[in-house]
């Protein structure tokens, strides 16, 4: 038994199991299923593969370098500075041209400052005093311009005094101009060179167009008719960012220039182009006192006597931040298979949804549920039911007495014996079907062996009269008091259910 069980287990490893399908003739559910299939297929083809290019391997680790150049001149004529020409060295900070640069558009100039003593501004709270004791010597003025000397100075027609300080005097007192100082800055040009590289695919590219000569490159301007020219007019950039140049030039602001690279490396390298977009990054809707963008810087010099002077400049202007991002894609079998597998899984989800509709939502759900889920009872339950059908009779009594035994009439006397034919078809080991019946013994109590047979060839001769020879089933022992009746019964039972009896 142990060897037979192990052998059967080993042979079962090579069995193939498949599913059993139930075809429901319901047009509504069938139409729903086809619609779900069409929707999933359209999503897979159009969105996943055509739009999102799900068949490509993607590299987002972009390496980038940005070089900027601003060109343009402006002319001013003021009472403080007189006639003056402003070029790129005067209004661009820092001058080396990085991805972040600042262009001066408005300024407040305080010339000829030197280190000396003077009164602190009246609008500085820590510099206000009423007597000398309010100004502690050597104490720095909080949010002020210098260090207190210990004296309190009074101005004419003033109700309060100011502490004397040691600082760069005279102090900055002028207010911001009502109009931009460098109005011509609207026509300045910005040249942006961007070099990018995608390390996964070892692909490099630049945004500078392949021009036949330098003159054609210098004459181009970025616009609706020329999307790939790397030279931008400053006023146009401000307008594309949603602002007016005169407003942002007066108080200052921050403009973002975004360069987006989206390269399909399945195409030629010449098809990989940058896409530019512009936005204002500072909070332009806020009307706080700190709105805009400004800072101070100074230019130092000495007079003939060697005394150090400086010109203080409070600069308002536009800060440009150049930001680069992008991705590159190239065909790869791995993402293709993954996305196809996801599509197949979605198809299964559609079938699952239709199953729920079929067996839980429609009117005939009970009928379809019974067809889909088949209840199979075990062999032990079937045997118990057979015993319950004939209560009060033992197994021997049911088989040897009474009419209607498996639909057969009661026999009067013993049946005619059936002799086993053992011709050429009944020899051992020749692949023939087992003989039906051997003459049973005449002993009063005879164990009879019977089992259902598949018609398999016998592998050995019968050893006990009345024993079933079947190589693939286990015999069941039935004990009878009178042999003729069970022999007749088992012979007919074998004929009915496909068994063989010996």
UniProtKB/TrEMBL annotation:
Reactions it catalyzes: Ca(2+)(in) = Ca(2+)(out)
Region annotation Disordered: where it falls in the sequence: 401-433
Single GO cellular component term: plasma membrane
Membrane-crossing segments per the record: 31-50, 340-362
Gene Ontology MF term list: ATP binding; extracellularly ATP-gated monoatomic cation channel activity; ligand-gated monoatomic anion channel activity; purinergic nucleotide receptor activity
PROSITE patterns: P2X_RECEPTOR
Name under which the protein is recorded: P2X purinoceptor
Highest rank taxon of the organism: Eukaryota
Keyword list, A-Z: Cell membrane, Disulfide bond, Glycoprotein, Ion channel, Ion transport, Ligand-gated ion channel, Membrane, Receptor, Transmembrane, Transmembrane helix, Transport
Record flagged with keyword Ion transport: yes
InterPro entries, per the entry: P2X5_purnocptor, P2X_extracellular_dom_sf, P2X_purnocptor, P2X_receptor, P2X_RECEPTOR_CS
Gene3D superfamilies from the UniProt entry: atp-gated p2x4 ion channel, atp-gated p2x4 ion channel domain
A UniProt-annotated Pfam family: P2X_receptor
GO term, biological process aspect, one: chloride transport
PANTHER family from the UniProt entry: P2X PURINOCEPTOR (PTHR10125), P2X PURINOCEPTOR 5 (PTHR10125:SF12)
Gene giving rise to this polypeptide: P2RX5
Similarity comment: Belongs to the P2X receptor family.
Topology class, membrane: Multi-pass membrane protein
Location(s) in or outside the cell: Cell membrane; Membrane
Role description: Receptor for ATP that acts as a ligand-gated ion channel.
Disulfide bond recorded as keyword: yes
